[in-house]
Structures are given as structure tokens and as C-alpha cells.
Amino acid sequence: MIQPPYLQKGSKVALVSPAKTVSRESVLPAIDILKSWGLNIVIGKYAFAEHFQFAGTDRQRTKDLQRMLDAPEIEAIFCVRGGYGTTRIIDNLDFTRFQQYPKWVIGYSDITALHLHIHTLGIQSVHATMPLLFTRDSEQSIKSLKVALGLETAPTLNYSSLTIKRKGTANGQLIGGNLSLLVSCIGTSSDVDTTGKILFLEDIDEYLYHIDRMMIQLKRAGKLRNLAGLIVGHFTAIKDNEKPFGKDVNEIIWDAVKEYTYPVCVGFPVGHEPENHALVCGKTVQLIATAKQVSITLSASL
């Protein structure tokens, strides 16, 4: 996997909105934070456009993102927010120059589709909080993003409060994100091979039976059979029908993977909560799940 160059003071970074509309005022605090990191900000022409629920038309959002993907002087692209819309434009993007000049792409939720596509190109990207949420998310979430981008150092992340469904040690590339987007990309040009990889999952505003259906789809598609490990993050605002489904999210996911042998941990701080720690998609890490804690070692030697 190709790792884009780490950022440093003076790096030029872009803000774009490939999905849902967002106001300029709501992002101003994040712009100040990025400037405090010593970064130079370039804002996409249509970053604050509005076309019904989208940040501009499909053509406008494509044009904005394409410009930043192509520009060799841009070292990172921050997706301002998620929502819905990235999959509508992804097949209209040309990644030729992006592959020549790899750069960090940052975001989560709907941006999962972009992470998956970039993964198929053999380039790392950052699943992390987005500018719209900088003032909501925790200090640790923001710090973890700085670490992922090379602006701070923290080689090992230890988590003692997670539930260990199956102990073990795994080495593999991280990949994953929003469960709904992961499932929707199966069979497309953004579909990823999960063999030997550490998969992480999160989602929001879904029914329990939807989660069950999507986990069954992942299993039927062979995405769960040959994993190196599984990390279950936040499943936020999950709903049930009037007649209960009968299992919670963790039970649903465990049922889908209990026949396998790789380590599984639940409750990792990634997803639609203030504790949304950055994970570098495509980075090879070591996951150690013991009875007492989970550690993820981000080591270049792995």
C-alpha cells in the first residue's frame, strides 16, 4: 500500500463536500483549527453549494473533488461532511493523477465509499472525524487525526474498556467503515478484497433487521470468511420494529462471525459518536485482543 506523504506546517490542504450540503458558518471553527496546525486551506468552489439535500449538483461535486484529486500541490483532501451522495459521483472521477500524486483523503460515514475505492488503487486514506464535527468530537479524536496525518506521534493505541468476543493476535491492513456503504459497494468497481485484512464496522440510524441483513450479505459475499480480525465500532441510533427483532447489534454481528477463528472486539471508538478515533485504511497494523485490553500498534515494520 502506498502511504501519501505526511503533512507538515505549510502543507496545502483542500476542503470539499462530495455528499450532503453544509453551511460555511458551521465549518469556520474547523478552518481555524486546521490553520492552527500550520496548514494552508483551499476551499472547493462548491463546498458550500446547495442542490436540494446535496452540496451542489452531481456535476459540481464531481468537478470540485476532481480538481483537488488532480492538483499536485494539494497534500490532503478533507471531506467536510458525509450524509449521502459520494456513490453518485464516484464513477465519474478520474484517479489517474491522484495515483501519480497520492494524497490523504479524510472522512467517514458516506465517505466510506471513497475509502474503499482508494483502497482498490493501493493507496492509504484516513477514516476520521470531519470538519463539520471538529467542535463536537473529543480531543482524543482530533489528536488521533493529527497522528494519522503525521502531525503528532503515538505509535500504540490501548483500549481497556472494549468487549473481547474472541481473543487473539492479528496482523493485517485496516479496511472498513460504514456497514451500509460497505455492502452497497459489493460488486462495484469500489469492492474490496477483505482476505487477510482487519475489518472495522460502524453505522447509524438503521433498524436491527437491516444490520442483520447486511451482515448476512457480507457473509454470503465471502467478506467475513478470511478476515485477520474484526473491530466493531459505534452503532448509533439503532432502531427496532414494534415486534422486536430479538437480538442487539453485537449479537447480530457475532452470529455472523462466530464460526471463524480470528479475534473480534466490540465497542471500539470509531463511528458516529464524539469518540471517533482515526484509523488509516490500508495501513498494516497489529491487533492484540486479550482478556484485559485491546491494543492496535501502528508500526511501519509490520
Automatic annotation (TrEMBL):
Example GO BP: proteolysis
InterPro entries: Carboxypeptidase_A_C_sf, Class_I_gatase-like, LdcA_N, Peptidase_S66_N, Peptidase_S66C, S66_fam
SUPFAM superfamilies: Class I glutamine amidotransferase-like (SSF52317), LD-carboxypeptidase A C-terminal domain-like (SSF141986)
Cross-referenced Pfam families: Peptidase_S66, Peptidase_S66C
Record GO terms (molecular function): carboxypeptidase activity; serine-type peptidase activity
Domain of life: Bacteria
Family of this protein: Belongs to the peptidase S66 family.
PANTHER family per the UniProt record, alphabetical: MURAMOYLTETRAPEPTIDE CARBOXYPEPTIDASE, MUREIN TETRAPEPTIDE CARBOXYPEPTIDASE
Protein name: LD-carboxypeptidase
Species name: Xanthocytophaga agilis
